[in-house]
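Most newcomers find our protein records easier to grasp once they have seen one. A learned vocabulary of local backbone shapes supplies the integers on the structure line. An example says more than a description, so a record of this kind follows:
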Amino acid sequence: INAEYGGCNTTSMVRAGLAAVCAIAATVRAMLWCTSLPDIAARRPELVTVATDFRQLREAQWMLENDANPYHGSFIRQPPLMIYLAQIPHVEVLLCGIDLLIGVLISATAQPASQLVPMRAGQAVGPAWHGWVLASIYLMNPAVIGSCIGNSTLLVGNCAIMLAGLGAMNGWIVLSMMAMATSVYLSCHSLVLLIPAILLLRTKLNQHTAWIFLKALVLFLVFLTVLLLASAKMMGGRWDWIDRVYGSIIRMEDLRPNTGLHWYLFQSMFQEFRSLFLILCNFHLVWVTVPCSARYMEHPVMLWCCTLAAQACFKPTTSLADLGFYLPCLLMLAPYLEEIKLRVTAMSALLVACLSFPPSWSLWIHSGVGNANTFFTTTIVYNVAQIIIITGTARSYVKFFMDPLVEAPANKQDPCPGEQDENLRASTDKPALEQPPPPVLSDPIKQVQQDQLALARFHRIDASLGISLVRRKKVEPEGLKGLDQSELIQAVTRLEQVAGTPELLRKAIGDQLMQRMRNTETICDQAQLSSTQVLNYFEKRRIQVAKAGSSVTEYNKQAAEFIGCLERSFVQTQQAKVERLELNERAKKKSD
């Protein structure tokens, strides 16, 4: 499963695997349509909720055909344009196609998501799982299959959400905002995904935050307005459907049981506290998303995946299909979840809760030996396990990138046999250069921590063209000729002399900077890497930073500090390898 994208053979394998998964998934759904399971699934509260019941649409269609307003009662909770689905013959085939499309979108999202994750200093991390594996996790999930054959309209909203995420990760702002407006039109609680989607666009397009926010927000409002006006025209100019569709969900008027927590809470509370809990339940996700978006703007993929999972977990009407939908999205962050805690406990609790929903519902409704507490106990276990997984994912990801104590040393490899051992010794025995070495702290642990933070900081600055630096008036390339670059030149020259060979210089620079140098066509021959090519890269980057309106002087300072940190990290790594070689030789002599 663990493999990087790249190469024609790998791409063909991914496409073949995805095609096979889609074919198997379609066959399974077609076989289940020939049984009585679709009717059973359509009545299961853990698969179909009051906001995703396709039978509402058939009822609304009948009322429209008989000149009655379907929103005068309290039955339908879905927007008017969804009623058109009830007019399509064999709509289950369309919903199955939408379900397969979601799997394809999940597969297509895996690679751009991995490219938008900032790399750890000196270490390239590719996608942990192939996209077709993530698609199979979604399409073969029993809850997703049950939701599909039960004709749940949740599939339409999930498809819009994945399309918005894919468009944002590829920089397709029009498609992303159109899909985001569609998802909000279908479920108003999807609005919390708007900020992470805009941050994805900002990272992909490398544009100023205020400008991309304004442009995306205008497009989102335009598309949402078009959908609302089309719905009003369909209803003959009436707007009362807005209160029935969105207002009733926000006010928790329909308290039919589902896998969420809200229905039992509002059934049991005193009316004096209802307004307070309505505010808490509807807006607590906003209070979490906004500050997290401000704090982790450089990590939009994590924000998108975790906000998607939290929105699916805490919206008023949830189902098991929501878990099956966001779980593959969280698995896109698998390489960064080394520190997640209680994963076995949480997954075991989820499995037990999912298996307990049918018997607890039967004990309450059919046998009569249980009550609402029997079903609600299962929902508590189910939701607590989800909270542990979501918060554990966010915590592990943040610790991976933000905590310097867990940063792995760059180029951590075993000693190379043969002639490479001599190269290692030669590289560490080189005489000191005429230039003064970079300052070193007395505490080596603090020095390593500061170096790791500086490396990660410069990678973020360089990848975003200095978007976090001081903003200056845009400078033309001719205005950079008098810039003092002596500190950076000395740092790069010192690093080349410490490395000694082009191969060791490449290892000292790290895969992440080498990839950006290849992208800017700075490297002609990787085997002949030199300080001149590195300086040429920084020269091109300075021009781009200046045109972006950032401080070139500050960028130069950060680049020189970055090269100094690379030098210290490289020397420490090489010295550790030589010490291991000497220990191995002494041990070998003793054994002889």
